[in-house]
Design goal:
The chain is an alpha+beta fold. The protein is built from 12 helices and 17 strands.
């Protein structure tokens, strides 16, 4: 009897153990895409910071998330970074590619990238003609009037101010300088606008071009290049930076980012709803490369080399297509040069490189029946809404800007002949609390005195 009872108890325990194992395995496979998003972020972050900015403090640039304490990274002798959960689960690998930053998974075979000559860039080595009032405004942007913890949370790492094309103010946080590349995140979208303008000027593409993707044999064939620039393609999307959303799945789980975005169904009528979408920008750049018959080196030929942006690196996905939504790195001075290029409507060192009035068209808010992007033009954020009201009354009405994750900004103010760059790491800081708008307003006032 006792033996039978023990056998019965053992069978129950084994059954319970089997159920626990099944539950754990099922739970892991359910959570695996979320974990891979986290490890993908960590691997790419660590690899790119080391390769492009010579920084080894990658953990300081990870967003606040409950998963972060469990992430582990290791780097081999070739600079390949592997990230995992607790060193065991959901491993992701980021590989450095000379001249192209880092790519998750298996990188594409990319052409050798020659160094860009900085000679055409009058800003890169220009001495600072410091203005005292401008420097005071910059000090506030760095939180000098705050306590150490508050200033650290503000996270400002770089400010560059151009007035009339001259550097009148500049400052960097400890550990950063004028040679440190910084990631622009979604500021990359505005640069994709400039890349598009270059190809429009050359007659390679037109804003009303349709039939952009071979797989779009349905209503999506009517989506135009301008629809992608203005974020009104109608494709379903969720830009929330969280585990398991389309934006993070695209960036950290998909080797063909444009293909993933292009596969999304229509959720709205084309041109009827403006929905901010990194997917649309990556589709755009895949189209630009295909129409131009080029590869990732096309960006150098069309934009970086003519402007002398020697620090600029646009990372690619697994297909070799630049991640135009998010992954452009450059020094703050080269970001300022891009702002100056826009301010000059594409005239650089006496040569017109963009169609005349390209920036006027790009910064005209044509509006849409509905929008989740307050005052957005052709991949530039605008201060003036379609109805004439201002997003930020303290800023000039003609101000427009690039905007990126974690507090990246490049402001252009034509009426003040001004470009202001603010870069940093400011997770959780609301746009209104970045002090970047105040920086621009203070600089405008300082230079107008």
């Amino acid at each position: 009897m006792a033996t039978a009872r023990r056998s019965w108890v053992l069978r129950i325990l084994l059954g319970l153990l089997a159920l626990i194992v099944v539950a754990l395995v099922a739970g892991y496979w359910y959570a695996r895409p979320l974990l891979l998003t986290g490890t993908g972020y960590a691997a790419h972050n660590a690899c790119a910071l080391h390769d492009l900015s010579a920084r080894s403090d990658a953990t300081t640039d990870l967003p606040p998330n409950p998963l972060v304490p469990y992430l582990r990274t290791s780097t081999d002798d070739d600079g390949v970074v592997t990230a995992s959960v607790l060193g065991l689960l959901a491993k992701q690998r980021a590989t450095p590619i000379p001249g192209y930053g880092c790519t998750l998974g298996d990188p594409a075979d990319l052409p050798t990238r020659d160094p860009v000559d900085p000679a055409p860039n009058p800003i890169v080595d220009q001495p600072v003609a410091a203005d005292e009032a401008v420097q005071a405004a910059i000090a506030r942007a760095f939180g000098d009037d705050l306590g150490p913890d508050e200033a650290s949370a503000l996270g400002t790492r770089a400010v560059v101010v151009l007035s009339g094309g001259h550097v009148v103010g500049e400052r960097y946080a400890d550990g950063f300088d004028s040679e440190t590349r910084q990631l622009g995140w979604s500021m990359s979208k505005s640069v994709a606008n400039l890349l598009t303008g270059r190809l429009v000027q050359q007659g390679v593409v037109a804003l009303d071009d349709t039939g952009l993707r071979t797989e779009w044999t349905d209503e999506r064939a009517r989506i135009s290049i301008e629809d992608l620039l203005r974020m009104r393609s109608g494709l379903e999307w969720d830009e929330t930076y969280d585990l398991g959303t389309p934006i993070t799945e695209m960036l950290y789980l998909r080797s063909d980012m444009a293909g993933f975005a292009a596969a999304q169904p229509l959720g709205h009528g084309i041109g009827e709803f403006q929905q901010y979408s990194s997917g649309s920008t990556n589709i755009l750049c895949s189209v630009l490369l295909e129409r131009a018959g080029g590869d990732a080196g096309l960006v150098d030929d069309l934009l970086f080399a003519p402007l002398g942006l020697s620090s600029a690196v646009w990372e690619t996905d697994g297909t070799g297509t630049p991640v135009c939504s998010s992954y452009l790195w450059a020094t703050p001075r080269d970001w300022a040069a891009l702002g100056q290029f826009a301010l000059a409507d594409g005239v650089w060192e006496g040569e017109r490189l963009l169609p005349e009035d390209w920036m006027t068209q790009s910064t005209t808010n044509v509006g849409a029946a509905e929008s989740d992007a307050d005052a957005y033009g052709m991949s530039w954020w605008l201060n003036q809404r379609a109805d004439g009201t201002l997003r930020y009354p303290t800023l000039p009405s003609d101000a427009y800007w690039m905007s990126g994750h974690d507090g990246q900004r490049v402001y252009v103010v034509p009426s003040a002949d001004l470009v202001v760059v603010r870069m940093g790491f400011s997770p959780g800081v609301e746009a209104e609390d970045l002090r970047s708008n105040e920086l621009v307003a203070d600089v405008v006032a300082a230079l107008a005195r």
